[in-house]
Amino acid sequence: MGADATRRHHGNRHGRSEQARLAVLEAADDLLVEKGFAGVTIEAIAAGAGVAKQTIYRWWSTKTDILLDAFLQDAAEDLPVPDHGDVGRDLRGYLRHLAYFLTRSDAGAVLRALLGHAQHDSAFAAVLRARFLDEQHDRDRLAIERAVRRGQLPADVDIAAEVDQLVGPIYYRALVTASAIDEDFTDRLVDAFLRRVGLTTNGDRPSGVNGRAELS
């Protein structure tokens, strides 16, 4: 979360102000990165944000609710899907952002903690899916869907399968193996996708090539 949200709050003086709300979200982010999920408490968040616990409980019931809101705000800001009119360029930019977001940003640390908590709390898992995972799935598909609408890709391309092959290795490395994900790795995923759908690595169809099989 950005550094613009300041923490000049004392007790309930700011009531339900947006400034206080942002300070709470930032404090929760900072605590998670510094101390891990177990170290995040309502008391510590209140102290970090400079607000009373009662102020926090007006908006949220649990620390996971706070962390989820903090994460959703960061995701909305940090995971745009580029739209340059070229599917290869759009996917390269998006996958690079996604890899950075998952592995190197504070928001990625929040997501990993939330996913871990969701394994032990089915009710929270449903909330996380409804509020983020479904939306993220749509975001992962967007560049390909735009390319289909532009006519750059065939209408019968299996978007679900292609998305799995594009983003699946990134999520696997970020959330399971913790292996490095550099730009060369994400670019290779895009190049493989372009070859599968019959495009060059520049996103154009090779001269004289009409079908996927001719490029293989």
TrEMBL record:
<dbReference type="Pfam" id="PF16859">
    <property type="entry name" value="TetR_C_11"/>
</dbReference>
<dbReference type="InterPro" id="IPR011075">
    <property type="entry name" value="TetR_C"/>
</dbReference>
<dbReference type="InterPro" id="IPR001647">
    <property type="entry name" value="HTH_TetR"/>
</dbReference>
<dbReference type="InterPro" id="IPR036271">
    <property type="entry name" value="Tet_transcr_reg_TetR-rel_C_sf"/>
</dbReference>
<keyword id="KW-0805">Transcription regulation</keyword>
<dbReference type="InterPro" id="IPR050109">
    <property type="entry name" value="HTH-type_TetR-like_transc_reg"/>
</dbReference>
<keyword id="KW-0804">Transcription</keyword>
<dbReference type="GO" id="GO:0000976">
    <property type="term" value="F:transcription cis-regulatory region binding"/>
</dbReference>
<protein>
    <submittedName>
        <fullName>DNA-binding transcriptional regulator, AcrR family</fullName>
    </submittedName>
</protein>
<dbReference type="InterPro" id="IPR009057">
    <property type="entry name" value="Homeodomain-like_sf"/>
</dbReference>
<keyword id="KW-0238">DNA-binding</keyword>
<feature type="DNA-binding region" description="H-T-H motif">
    <location>
        <begin position="41"/>
        <end position="60"/>
    </location>
</feature>
<feature type="domain" description="HTH tetR-type">
    <location>
        <begin position="18"/>
        <end position="78"/>
    </location>
</feature>
<dbReference type="Pfam" id="PF00440">
    <property type="entry name" value="TetR_N"/>
</dbReference>
<dbReference type="GO" id="GO:0003700">
    <property type="term" value="F:DNA-binding transcription factor activity"/>
</dbReference>
